[in-house]
Amino acid sequence: MKTVPTLYEWAGGREAFERLTELFYGKVLQDELLEPVFRHMNPEHSKHVAHFIAEVFGGPKTYTEDDNGSHAGMVRHHLGKMLTEAQRRRWMALLLDSADEIGLASDPEFRSALVGYLEWGSRLAIMNSSTADNPISEGEPMPKWGWGETGGPYQP
Ligand code: HEM
To answer: Phi then psi for 4, rounded to 5 degrees?
Structure first.
């Protein structure tokens, strides 16, 4: 039986995600729509986001174990930020430009999974940014993303 690699393995592991977010947040700070919301980001921000996505994609538990993060903690960073759809679209565009520029795997299957995850996560980030109440409780597991489908319609 063939073993299916995780998205994390396919992408090239931790280093690939760290390169991706490093380039991306450099672009963000040059962008007129996004710079105002990221101006005061933590110096570890880029690494934390890389580790979050890597863990969701089946990599090691770096975000939850070494960075002291959690799913609820990640969501908390977005609460009350009042992010807009225009900012989300720019965020997506710059992240996908960065993926191309670092030469991240560009096969249709990987990119479909990557874009699917980023669309899902970025839309939730915008929704969460318009409330003060965290919809995710402490202790809830990290999301998991693989090669397949999301598995059902949106449930509020
Ligand atoms: C898949 C989508 C996303 C993921 C996985 C994600 C992940 C994260 C993580 C892990 C943090 C905490 C970083 C830290 O510990 O320093 C964070 C913070 C933040 N994110 Fe996101 N995010 C996503 C989408 C977005 C989008 C679309 C926006 C805005 C357009 C956004 C805006 C922010 C802001 C403003 C912060 C706080 C920055 C600060 O510390 O000042 N995020 N995000």
So the answer is: -95, 125
Whole-model pTM above 0.90?
yes
The alpha carbon of 78 and the centre of ligand 1 are apart by a number of angstroms equal to: 6
pLDDT digits (tens, 9 = 90+) for 105-117: 999 999 999 999 9
Q: Hey, what domains does the chain have and what are their CATH numbers?
A: 8-128 (1.10.490.10)
Annotated binding site for heme: 48
**Tokens found for residue 131:** 């409330």
Tokens of 143: 């999301």
pLDDT digits (tens, 9 = 90+) for 68-92: 999 999 999 999 999 999 999 999 9
ipTM score assigned to the predicted complex: 0.97
Ligand 1 centre and the CA of 79: distance in Å?
10
Token output for 142: 């990290």
Distance between terminal CA atoms of the chain?
39
Alpha helical stretches, state H, 78-107:
85-101
Alpha helices in the chain (DSSP H): 7-11, 14-28, 35-38, 45-56, 71-76, 85-101, 108-128
Residue with tokens 């993060």: 69
